[in-house]
Write a structure and sequence with these properties.
CATH class of one domain: Mainly Alpha
Largest sheet: 3 strands, antiparallel
Order of helices and strands: EEHHEHHEEHH
Number of helices: 6
Shape: globular
CATH superfamily of one domain: Winged helix-like DNA-binding domain superfamily/Winged helix DNA-binding domain
Helix content: 40-55%
Structural class: mainly alpha
Distance between the termini: 94 Å
Strand order of the largest sheet: 3-5-4
CATH topology of one domain: Arc Repressor Mutant, subunit A
Strand content: 5-15%
CATH architecture of one domain: Orthogonal Bundle
Length: 199
Amino acid sequence: MSHDGGRCAPSDSPLGPRTEGDPINKSDRLAHLTKEAWRAFTRAMQAKLAEHGVPFGHWTFLRILWERDGLTQRELSGEAGVMEPTTYAAIRAMAARGYVRREQLPGNRKNVYVYLTPKGRALEDKLVPLAVEVNAVAVRGVPAEDIAAARATLLAVVENLNRPSRPTRAPGRRTGGSGRDSRPRAPAASSPARRPQAR
């Protein structure tokens, strides 16, 4: 995938292998390991799709339309997480291949709805098994409980990172309604007791 306007966009350029001499370590951060897993998944799926002449960028939109046909281009952009110009270009290319058709409803010339053609619908039975195969290869030899734990962890990561972030404060520093520092202060040192004067 490439980046368009700060968001990931489907890309048809194949991903190459990791740079030689840059091994993956068990101590790598989770974000790094997740990125490398995504690269491996994408590279494997690109190779499978290429056997059927389907670009990876089209696969992204086909998957959505197989589940929810007749979306607008704007809705497709939201589902795929890409910018609308990227969706527009992909849908035009898919229409040229005969995978989809675009329609405007009478009385509403603003929205363009995207529908699968019989050819695009037929690709589901050919391509979905490829994705199932790639997923099976990815977890080959991994115990079922480890796969379940990985799923639970990734779901928690997505949920945590999608939550609105709270502003951080300096450790141990809390402010009251006046905005002044309300940390407990050490009592002021008392002056030494004065001895009674002899009379």
